[in-house]
Amino acid sequence: MANRATSFILSFLLSAGLVWVVASCVLEAAQQPQPGIGLDLVHTVRRWRRDLSRDRAASRVALLGDSVLGGSVGERTVPDATSEALARCGRRGQSIAVHPLSWPGWGVSGEYFLNDEIVRARPDVILLELNLRGMGPATPGAASYPELAGFVRPERLLEAASLPLSYAGLTLDRLLFYHLLVASGADEAWATVLRRQASLFRLREPIEAWFDAALGNRAYVDRRVAVTLGTFDKVFVPGKNRERLELVQTVLGNALGGLSPTHPRLRILGAMLEHYRRAGIPTIVWVAPVNVDHLRSLGLPLEGLRRSLGTIRTLVEANGAALIDLHDLLRDEAFIDAGDHVTSNVGMSGATMLGESLARVLLSMAPRERRPRPADTSLRASSR
């Protein structure tokens, strides 16, 4: 039995080594760019934290959220519009520095995993986006970034294990595994493995293109086009970049039906806000705009959405934070796509209207003078 086990382990190691070498040769020959992975967010957070800690403004605001805050290169984003609105308010507005931190699909579970990293930055205010599209019933899958759970500090592991994080792809064994990787300093090696895996998956299209060229046909490219067209037909309203009823119910169904205080993602939100309260950081939760005009055009009632917002407000305030409800701030033309991302064009765009609303909130609580704050002592984490 011992010999068989030894033989299996050796065979596994040799096979894994061979696969790694072959994969390295293939990727080197393909010269594929490095893909992004969830663990890259940790490096982004640490750079953001260093920038924030060096800022000498009277009020340093951590503006946290998902792709609603982002945009393509050169586009005017919500953080840009917020900073511009503050600058127009003269000296008082200039004493507020907005430090945005956004990542596609970064919802409550991913934000909870990085609670400790945010607290280490010691912002004066946290302005936390809550996107109702992240409330389900659809599970976020890989976009929940469960590997970030390794950055939950040891004293919070028991709390994390007791929260309903299975929807985010996290089980107890994975929580402990990711924590072990980070505690042992092996998270960078793990990130290398994940990047290698993602790069190999991305080789499918160039390989298919090579087969088409070698065989002199368009079988693979035609299949990709057919799949894309079929997806558009199932997902989007004809002639509009807006979602069909079925997809709206998938991403917003829980919020439209009326969220319960025991909803898994609300429980995680409550734990996150309680952590910020214990750290003494004032927190404002703002509900991202929803395209209510499109919901009405689909014949969906909005009473459940209003009940959900009442539940969210009760939970947020019970955990020492404030709620700013911007869910119905924008009309249909202020949204650029079916995902409720806002327009960025100059003028009264969605980004402008949202940024000005956030600026007014910040001005209402701006401090009159600079307060001393504790230094960020996490040098080891910052240098990694």
Give a verbal description of the structure.
It is globular and about 70 Å long. The two termini are 43 Å apart. The protein contains 17 helices and 5 strands. It has helices at 2-30, 40-54, 78-87, 91-94, 108-113, 115-120, 157-162, 172-183, 187-201, 204-215, 219-235, 245-257, 264-278, 292-297, 303-318, 350-364, 379-383; strands at 59-65, 96-102, 125-130, 283-287, 322-325. The chain has a 5-stranded parallel beta sheet with strand order 2-1-3-4-5, with helices on both faces. Helix content is 53%, strand content 8%. It has a single domain, classed as Rossmann fold (3-Layer(aba) Sandwich). The longest helix has 29 residues, at 2-30. The chain is an alpha/beta fold and 384 residues long.
Strand and helix layout:
Blueprint: H1 2-30, H2 40-54, E1 59-65, H3 78-87, H4 91-94, E2 96-102, H5 108-113, H6 115-120, E3 125-130, H7 157-162, H8 172-183, H9 187-201, H10 204-215, H11 219-235, H12 245-257, H13 264-278, E4 283-287, H14 292-297, H15 303-318, E5 322-325, H16 350-364, H17 379-383
Parallel strand pairs: 1-2, 1-3, 3-4, 4-5
